[in-house]
Amino acid sequence: MTSPMPVPPYPHPAPPGAWPRSPAALARATAVLLGLVVATDLFACYADLLEMDVTKDLVDGVVGDDVIDRADHADDLYGLSGILQGVALVATMVVYLCWLWRVRVNAGVFDASRHRMRLGWTIGGWFCPVVNLWFPRRIVADTWDASGPWGARSGHALVNAWWALWLADLFLGQLADTRSRRAETAEELYEAARAMLLSDALDIVAAVFAVLVVVRLSRLQERKLRSEEMPFPAPPPAPALG
Predict the structure, then answer these.
(1) pTM for the whole thing?
(2) Angle of CA points 185, 168, 216, to nearest 5°
(3) Which one in 43, 144, 178, 225 has a CA-CA gap of 20 to 30 Å to 233?
(4) Confidence of residue 227 (pLDDT cuts 50, 70, 90)
């Protein structure tokens, strides 16, 4: 006869009405919008390549109406790609923060002892200078720990990889944007477009890892909601991620 599973020590009972809810719908919406970010980044990479191609010709001394027309076309696509990326980023950020708030609230109900940051930092940590370099990663890691099976060792390899890529993309994007704004000669424009291409490509990789974190963490919580580890009866959660 097997012994019953020990009850995990929930040191802080959930306040009235603080039922954990399924993050599945918000996770799907976040993943879709991150896919949109990838699509706009791919378009931006195409625009970057066109910009590099025409500025390389200008550096090599190629002249004529054809080069001017290509330069105008490349500049138009370059500007359009920046607008599309900005719109996709803002929309994704809003939905992502809604998802992150939901999983953080859930994790606070699962195990309040795992969290080193107050709930308000879930949003505020992204917008406060300096601390936004590590607070969001800490919040996601703590939420990950609280969402896993009680007593199991949880690694942060995926979270760490996502955050490292995000920081690298943040710094490279700022560098590329500065070069682009200060570029005046054809050679400087070429170098700025090359830096922007690297930034856009890195942003694609970072977005893919962000999707993986969203999906994995949401599935951890779905399993937690359906397990016998809940400290109190909860209403049936929404359907799990497919």
Answers:
(1) 0.85
(2) 140
(3) 144
(4) confident
Average pLDDT, the chain: 87
Mean pLDDT of 174-189: 89
What is d(CA 242, CA 232) in angstroms, rounded to the nearest whole number?
Answer: 26
Neighbours of 146 (CB within 10 A): 24
C-alpha Rg value of the chain to the nearest Å: 23
Classify residue 110 by burial, with Cβ atoms within 10 Å: 0-12, 13-18, 19+: buried
**DSSP assignment of 53-106:** HHHHHHHTT--SHHHHHHHHHHHHHHHHHHHHHHHHHHHHHHHHHHHHHHHHHH
